[in-house]
């Protein structure tokens, strides 16, 4: 692919040196929190870093009766409040000349006629060459209306064989296997499969991508990465805040569907996959799909999960709401704000190694990590030591991105006493470059047409096949989530889940 010269690009910035070609990006749901706090700032940061060419256009589509200038003011406010890079007036002025707004509704023909006219105008004035990506940052219930309108007004098809068309879909990809298949049919009726980009922003994080580099570029890790040495694996995503104003989305979805089905199972796949023969999309995806297809559930599901709901109480010195105190949560809700499950992987590498996945709101701190806990040392010399735990390799996805290795060391003194110590690699200490925001990498990959970091439909369906039996069990047995205090690490049943296997959760 030919790189486009861009005068805004900082020559000292060696990260993501690929530069997108002429194109326009259309945001549906542009006034939502995701667009305001993440997507619009990410686009500006890309412009600021010289990764988007002058022949780039940004189009917002929404119900508000805004002029182009009013929308520009909204974008600027979002950028100044949330962008990662320094705000530069010269960069903004160049970027702002390509910003447009289309007022309309998702099911209104006139709105999409105006959108078509706007994109044609950008093609002429900015030189976008008719290349368009449509970002659906909207509820899944609105996908069908938008997609049908894009098809009806020939916005999803190439014209005269020129220009590409792509669609970006935010999770959730359905709420179970059946709905995921229905959603995929709706999308593939309009866009070909290679033009569909399903966003899981965790896959754009540097530390997630570093799993592959750490495993396969270093001889010190790969020999340990199997059931001969690994006792079990814990994958955790914890958040210290509650659901806030997201009751309309969260109630009925819950922690398992919101996080385990996508983020945590993707982390599991990257952790457990075999080495791909290249970084091409189909090679990476094939290895991840092999892992997800090999996941098996314990025979007794009743002993293989824990779910909970946070109560009110003190957290961080402040009184916080319980789940049922949040706005619009019904008193009869069985939606879980904490979920933990146990699964196995039926492969030669991982036979007998359980994987424990947990996520929750109002937990002790914000952290996402993958912990590979090694088997206990067989050395009889130290079997009586109470201070030595199991060695662990911990990949910190966020915050303090990096890698931690826990091992035993002799305590200084006249006696042979040992204690666990930590060896840390932190991105911020080892590299002068800042970590790019996940959405920067993912949006750039969409504009370049490079799909390795995007799960395809097969991965989505395999993930639902893993989670659906738990969801059905909870519904069929009318399982009520256990209570847990804010600032804790979940309900006591989560500890019991591991205690049955003579194991304990790590304290992140």
From TrEMBL:
Residue intervals of the Glucose-6-phosphate dehydrogenase C-terminal domain: 212-506
Source superkingdom: Bacteria
Record-listed substrate binding positions: 201, 205, 239, 258, 361
Limits of the Glucose-6-phosphate dehydrogenase NAD-binding domain: 26-210
Pathway: Carbohydrate degradation; pentose phosphate pathway; D-ribulose 5-phosphate from D-glucose 6-phosphate (oxidative stage): step 1/3
GO molecular function: glucose-6-phosphate dehydrogenase activity; NADP binding
Gene3D superfamilies: Dihydrodipicolinate Reductase, domain 2 (3.30.360.10), NAD(P)-binding Rossmann-like Domain (3.40.50.720)
Keyword Iron-sulfur appears in the UniProt entry: no
EC number(s) recorded for this UniProt protein: 1.1.1.49
Keyword check for Oxidoreductase: yes
GO terms (BP aspect): glucose metabolic process; pentose-phosphate shunt, oxidative branch
Chain positions recorded as NADP(+) binding sites: 63, 171
Uppermost EC category: oxidoreductase
Record field: transmembrane: none
Catalyzed chemical reaction(s): D-glucose 6-phosphate + NADP(+) = 6-phospho-D-glucono-1,5-lactone + NADPH + H(+)
Protein purpose: Catalyzes the oxidation of glucose 6-phosphate to 6-phosphogluconolactone.
PANTHER family from the UniProt entry: GLUCOSE-6-PHOSPHATE 1-DEHYDROGENASE, GLUCOSE-6-PHOSPHATE 1-DEHYDROGENASE G6PD
Protein name as it appears in the record: Glucose-6-phosphate 1-dehydrogenase
């Amino acid at each position: 692919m030919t790189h486009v010269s861009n005068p805004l690009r900082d020559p000292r910035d060696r990260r993501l040196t690929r530069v997108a070609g002429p194109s326009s990006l259309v945001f549906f749901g542009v006034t939502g929190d995701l667009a305001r706090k993440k997507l619009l700032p990410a686009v500006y940061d890309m412009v600021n870093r010289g990764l988007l060419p002058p022949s780039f256009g940004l189009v917002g589509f929404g119900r508000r009766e805004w002029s182009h200038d009013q929308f520009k003011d909204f974008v600027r406010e979002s950028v100044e409040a949330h962008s990662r890079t320094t705000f530069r007036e010269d960069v903004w002025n160049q970027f702002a000349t390509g910003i447009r707004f289309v007022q309309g509704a998702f099911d209104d023909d006139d709105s999409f006629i105006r959108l078509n006219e706007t994109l044609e105008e950008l093609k002429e004035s900015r030189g976008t060459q008719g290349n368009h990506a449509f970002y659906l940052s909207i509820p899944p219930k609105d996908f069908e209306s938008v997609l049908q309108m894009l098809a009806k007004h020939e916005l999803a098809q190439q014209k005269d064989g020129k220009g590409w068309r792509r669609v970006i879909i935010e999770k959730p990809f359905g709420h179970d296997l059946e709905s995921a298949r229905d959603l995929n049919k709706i999308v593939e009726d309009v866009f070909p499969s290679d033009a569909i980009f399903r966003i899981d922003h965790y896959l754009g994080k540097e530390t997630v991508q570093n799993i592959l580099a750490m495993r396969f570029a270093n001889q010190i890790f790969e020999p340990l990465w199997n059931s001969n040495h690994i006792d079990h694996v814990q994958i955790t995503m914890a958040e210290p805040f509650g659901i806030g104003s997201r009751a309309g989305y969260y109630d009925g979805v819950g922690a398992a569907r919101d996080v385990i089905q996508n983020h945590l199972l993707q982390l599991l796949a990257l952790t457990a996959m075999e080495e791909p023969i290249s970084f091409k999309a189909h090679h990476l995806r094939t290895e991840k799909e092999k892992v997800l297809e090999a996941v098996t559930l314990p025979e007794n599901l009743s002993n293989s999960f824990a779910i909970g709901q946070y109560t009110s109480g003190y957290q961080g010195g402040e009184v916080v709401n319980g789940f049922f105190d949040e706005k619009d949560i019904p008193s009869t809700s069985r939606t879980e704000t904490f979920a933990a499950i146990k699964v196995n992987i039926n492969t030669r590498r991982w036979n007998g190694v359980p994987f424990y996945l947990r996520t929750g709101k109002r937990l002790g701190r914000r952290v996402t990590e993958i912990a590979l806990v090694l088997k206990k040392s067989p050395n009889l010399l130290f079997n009586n030591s109470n201070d030595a735990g199991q060695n662990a390799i911990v990949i910190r996805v966020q915050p303090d991105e990096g890698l931690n290795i826990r091992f035993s060391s002799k305590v200084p003194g006249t006696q042979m006493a040992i204690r666990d110590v930590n060896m840390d690699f932190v991105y911020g200490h080892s590299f002068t470059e800042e970590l790019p925001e996940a959405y920067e990498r993912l949006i750039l990959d969409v504009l370049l047409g490079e799909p390795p970091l995007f799960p395809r439909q097969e991965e989505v369906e395999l993930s639902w096949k893993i989670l659906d039996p738990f969801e059905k069990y909870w519904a069929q047995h009318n399982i009520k989530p256990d209570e847990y205090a804010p600032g804790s690490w979940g309900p006591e049943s989560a500890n019991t889940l591991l205690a049955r296997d003579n194991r304990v959760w790590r304290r992140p």
